[in-house]
Structure formats: structure tokens, C-alpha cells
Amino acid sequence: MKLRSFEVQPNLPSELSPLKELASNLWYSWNYPAIELFRQVDPDAWDKVKHGPQEMVHIVDQERFNILHNDDSFMAYMNSVHKSFKEYFSEDTWFAESFSAMQNKIKKTNKTIAYFSMEYGVDVSVPIYSGGLGILAGDHLKAASDLGVPLVAVGLLYQRGYFKQYLSSDGWQKESYPYNEFYHMPINPVENPDKSPLIIQVDMKSKIIYAQVWRCDIGRVPLFLLDTNIKANSPEDREITAQLYGGDNDMRIRQEILIGIGGIKALTQIGYHPIVCHMNEGHSAFLTLERIRYYMSELKLTKKEAMLLVKSTNIFTTHTPVPAGNDRFNPADVFAYLENLLKEISINQKEFFDLGRENPSDETELFCMTVLALRMAFYANGVSKLHGEVSRKMWLNVWPGLPVEEIPIQHITNGIHTRTWISHDLGALYDLYLGPKWGRDQFNVEDIWARVNRIPDIELWGTHERRRERLVSYARKKLNQQIKRRGAPLPEIQKTMEVLNPKVITIGFAKRFATYKRANLIFRDLERLKKILLNPEQPVQLIFAGKAHPHDNPGKKFIQAIVDFARDEDLRNNIVFIEDYDMSVARYLVQGCDIWLNNPRRPLEASGTSGMKAAANGVINLSVMDGWWCEAYSTQNGWAIGSGEEYVDAETQDEIESNQLYDLLEKEIVPMFYHRGNDGLPREWISKMKECIKTIAPVFSTGRMVADYSKKFYMPALTNSYKLLENVATLKNLSSWKEKIVTNWDNLEVQQIESNTTSIIRVGEEINITTTIQLGKLDSKDILVQLYYCRINADGDAISPIETVDMECIQGNKYAGKIICKHSGNYGYTVRLIPKNVELDFPFESGLLTWSK
Length: 853
Description:
Layout: H1 17-23, H2 32-41, H3 43-48, H4 53-59, H5 62-69, H6 72-90, H7 94-98, H8 100-109, E1 111-116, H9 132-147, E2 151-156, E3 164-167, E4 173-176, E5 188-189, E6 199-204, E7 207-218, E8 221-227, H10 235-238, H11 249-270, E9 273-280, H12 287-298, H13 303-311, E10 314-317, E11 328-329, H14 331-344, H15 349-355, E12 367-368, H16 369-375, E13 379-382, H17 385-394, E14 410-411, H18 418-421, H19 424-433, H20 445-448, H21 457-485, H22 490-495, E15 505-510, H23 526-533, E16 540-545, H24 553-567, E17 575-578, H25 583-592, E18 595-598, H26 610-616, E19 620-624, H27 629-632, E20 638-641, H28 650-674, H29 683-696, H30 702-726, H31 728-744, E21 749-755, E22 766-774, E23 783-792, E24 798-806, E25 808-811, E26 814-820, E27 827-835, E28 850-851
Parallel strand pairs: 1-2, 1-9, 2-8, 9-10, 10-13, 13-14, 15-16, 15-18, 16-17, 18-19, 19-20
Antiparallel strand pairs: 3-4, 5-7, 6-7, 7-8, 11-12, 21-22, 22-26, 23-24, 23-27, 25-26, 27-28
Helix pairs in contact: 2-6, 9-30, 11-12, 11-14, 12-13, 13-31, 21-25, 25-26, 30-31
């Protein structure tokens, strides 16, 4: 039987139209008055749809809307929230104030910064995320909206999203993939002028794939999502956007072609001109090819000119600190999908393979999306200071001969969107004692966040105790549902309402269950842990949540082991595992725990953001010195496991660090929590909470993070774009210069180095050095001649930090420079040559570098 479809929409009285407008923009998700407004519409329906207003509006009875229409109290509240919503869009923004000239240029031209990510964790009502990468992307968009950054975003709209987690009776993780009902999500189809759906076409293996474009508004920022599950595609091709991180390598290639190439096509077809592109991980790196094609076609640039323009306006953020975590494909498989496009832009097979290989001469090397992104972006970064260092070491082969310290991968440490993750009652305290700007002004640390000390201890502690009570109540409810679903007997179901204690110190551990995160470390010495948890005077309780990748059996075994521990008759009231970790579960945990536990194997945690969310709520971190915690930790704002050591033997590391963890709990953390004054308040603990908030919340925010991206990357890339697009002659001259450099570079040579140095130099003295360069067909203005010097060890190897001095051309091909000896020690120096052009602020773009022999 074939049914004809039609859509029935709620018939809201015109006076209630603001509800529909508010429900269609995810601004509501970080503004508690808007959330409370939707809860008032129908509290039961609000909980039933898991706080998705678009779906709730569809299921609420029409009679309920008629009642609300005649409720003057509700109408007044709705109009107040709607007014705040409108004011948000009309207020001055940080970007407009900081970069007014650029803002005016962008407004006139509809040009934009485009942000690409495979997943976005904006709100639980849009389930197209798996974990930290997606949550970070969602918070990035919210902060970009708050700051007024001219940014649009691109992703994929998954029919089944990421999996829902449930546990079998033996504690083994199982996965289900419920369908997303797009019409109940805060998204809308993008339409052509004739009101038909906007459909883009992408060539894959000489076959056209069609994708419908949807729009999701996150404040000021539009997120465009591509969907191949439409009738124009074959059943096989409809599966491209079926599931986040699903399928085999072939499916992954197709998804990454769709988001990269299809994403650029979609923005262009909608009417945007993405003149700067930010790749959040390497998944979208194929966008570089479509950008080259566009500029060759539209501006009639040569391949080399288009490549230079694209490179100078691309930004790449890597989140992965291990080589195995980066997408690698059989080069021939990728080439087969892209052959037509590559032919159109005159890139042959070898040139293409070289773009994705660390060592282009190694024909056995796989094609790596991270390498493609690094080769095609002037601006690259890791997501913490430590991760920047790790990334420079990981990818040094992309820049052969360049010292690791100078590998052009910077760092911008991640942050969180503070208003999204703060509990509403703590937010009310911040409003009262910090002032209304705390959630938007992320930069005035002295004047705003220092005011945390003004919050009376009794009020901060009372708020936190209420949140712990909410967490315990929520955990009991979730555990009760879990046990019922597994078919447990009634006595076991009844016991779920007795687990945990709202007055007991609560430790939270919630994250992806990758084995390097060591969720089981705290269970290494079970007898010692039992003494800690079951101390009758100072008991402790643990709450866990998190998903293992569907194919990660070791991670699933970690979950199963924790569930087994929680079934121990002695421990069942002190340990809970909450199924199906998502943004909703995360909020309860980061707001209601007392301690946030994080114990990965250093340096495998690129950044980590869950601990930032906890800290902004006054939940104190207990963490290994890895990722962001290396930058945030002080003895006053949390606890550190170890001092940043790295171990060769994992067993030794686990033994040492588990003992350190137990020691901290036994000797410092638990006694401090239970130490109360005559007024019943744990004053020392509260002081640590305040220090945690003051030192972490203002710094580790996406407000600061997106401002950093704007200043370090977006503005330079935008400047490059306008400079080269408005004066194509400059671009052509740069491209010609680069070709001349590449052609003649091998003829360069450092012929002679002379200096006035002796074997002993005293601090404060200078070494004058001259060198003669064989320039060949190049001119002195084409190269940068540098003195390179540093401390050296007994083997003559360089020791950081490295210093360089630009040498001056004093006559023809003769250069001079000097080293001022500021510190004592054993030093060495040499001379090197780098391409130089005043129009190109990226000296290592060509990969050319010559050292003196």
C-alpha cells in the first residue's frame, strides 16, 4: 500500500508566534529563561521530548496553546524572552568593535569564514555528534555567534546520527541506531527561489551524488547540513549520510568528499562566498580541491595561482595526538573517486598522491587526510600547548629539514561555551555577584571573574549541594530505567532508589571509553578502593558514563568491568554507571559532582574539555598532567596526579599513578571535603572551588578560544584573501615568484662563513659573522639569510630554545649578522637560507630550506 504524504503543523494563535521563532533557533539552548519558557508550555511534554522545543510544539495539544494564549502571566514571560532574543541580534559585537573595517567589507560582499566539521554537539535535540570533537564544534559556533564572528558552518545530517548505548544483562555495551525525525528537529530545508528544496550535485567516481541542504540556526551562525537520503540517489548512495562514523573506508571516503567538496558547492549555491575555510580535523580536507576548481573556473586563475590563494586562506585544527587516529586511505581508491575533478584542475595522479603523503617519494605510503590539510593550509594548530608540541613532532616529516620547534603548527587551547554548561542556579549567583556580562565578556578577567570571592560561602555551597542532590536523583532514575529494561527482578529494581547518597563526596568520570583514558585505573587495587569508598566516617561514591566505539572491544570491556564492580554487594550503593552518555547526562555530571577525575596516558589527551565544564561549575579537577590541565593546574585550584612524567612501560605507569590517585584521595581530597567548621561549611573546600572558578572559567572558554582564532588565524587569512582577490596581479606575481624560487633553489649554496669568534666568549660579548651566498639566478631580495644558534649538548645536538637572527646583505651576495651572547654555556651556530617575499607571510610554505654544509 502506498500512502501519499502531507505535513500537519500546529495551529498556534498569532500571539504565540514567538514560540515558533524561538524554537527554530538554538539560541534557546544556552539561555535558561528560554528553556524555562518551553518547560512552562507543557512540563510533561518537555521531558518526553528530551528538551527539544521543535518536537514539543508538535505534540502539545491544541487546547493547551489556547489556554496559554489566555494566560497573561505566560504571555508576559514569553514576550520578555522574545525581546531578549531580538536584542541579542541587534547588540554590538566584539568582532565588529575589534575589526570594524573588515566587518564592513564582509557585510558588503556576502563573503564569509566557513567552518567544517563532521559532527556538531550543539544541543541534545540535534543528535549528530559522538563526543568531544562535536561538542567543541558546537561550542565554537555558539561563541562565534556571541562574538559576532562572520562565520557559517557545514556538516552532514545523519539519518541515524551516532549510536544510542544500552547495556546487556552482563554489562556488555550494545548499540541501537534510532532514526532522526528531521521535521521534529530545529532545522529547515534550504529552498531555491521557486520554493523547491536546494539540491547540490557531487561527482564521485563519475557518478553524480545528490544532497539536500538543511539549515540549523545557532544564534547568528547558520549551520548547513547535507543529506543524501533522498529519492534522487540510489539506495547505496542514500546511505552516505546514514550514520556518523559508520561503514568502512570506502564509506568514509565518500562522506569526506561530500562534506568537503559538497560543502563548498552548497555554500556557493546558497549565495555565500567562503573566502576563508577552517577545517576542524582533516575529514573535510577535500574542500581544498573544490576551492582550487572554483577559483580556476570563476577567476581564470592558473592551478598554481589558485593553490596559493587557497593555501593562504585555509586553517586546519588537528585534535589527534596519535598517528593511528588520522584518516588514511589507499591512494588509488581516493584517486578513483576524484579523477574527474583532478583532471579539471590539472592535478595528475602523482601530484595528488604527493599532497597526502609525508614522504612523497615513498610510493607505499597511504594517503593521509591530515597531511593533505597541513600541505594546503597556511595556518595549523593543536588544541593545547602540549598537543601543539606533540603535533610538531608527529608531522615534522611534512617539512623535511626544519627543526621541530619551527614546524608551523601552533596551538590554540580549547575552551567551553560557559553559559551552555553552567547550571541555572549557579548562573543566577554569577549574575548577582559577577554582573550580567560574565557570560559574554570573556576577556576582562580582573574585573569580572575576581568577583567570585564576593559570593558568600553559604550561598555557593548551598547551590552546589542542591546540584549534587539533583544528580543523585537523576542517577537513581536512570539506573532504575536501565535495570527495568534488562528485566531485573523487582527487589533489584527497588534497590536502585537507594544507591548513592546526596551528602557524600561524589567523583565523576564521563568521557569516551578509549583505553588510553584508563577508566579502570581507580579499580587497580580494589581492596584499597573499597576502604576509601566504604569509610563509615568519610564515604566516597563514583559515577561513570561514556561510550566505547562500536568496534572497540577493549573499551567495551572497561565498561563491563565497571558494571561488574557496581554489582559487588558491598559497592552497589557507591558506584553507578549511567548509560547513553550525551549532553543531557553530561550537564548533570559536570554540575553535580564534587571531583572530576581524568587519568589518561600522557600525552594522548590532546586537550579534554569535560574538566573545563566541571571547573566552571566549581567542580574540582583531579587529573593527570595532560592536555589542557598542564596549562590550568595550580596547587590552589585542583589536584594533579604526577608531575607530567611519561613512561615507557604502561604497567609501571598504572601502578605508580593509581597509588598517587589513592594517596590524594586518602590524605588530601576526602579529608578536606569532610572537614567542617562550626557552621557546617567546608570552608577550605569552598575556597578551592572559588579558586578553580576564578582561574579556569575565564581562560578556558570558547569566547577566549574563538577570539584567539580570530586574531591569530581568521583576520590574517581574511587579509590574505582580500589582498589577493582585490589585486589578482599580486597573486600572479607571487605565483610567478614561487615558480622561480622552486626552479632555481637547488643552485643556492652557502659558500663561506667567517666570524671573529674565539674558543671562549664572555657573557655580553658579540660574535660578528659574515657569509657569502651563491645566488645563481635568484636575487638577494628573494631569500632570507639567517643565523641559527642555540645551546648544544655533548654530542653537538641542538637544545631548545632556538634563536635566529636575520642577516643583512652588505654587498652583492655577502651578508652580515651578529650574535649577542646573553647566557653562558656551550653554543653552536650555522647559516640557513629560506625563501622570502614581503607579500607572503609564510616562509615555509614551499618546503624549501637550505643549510650551510
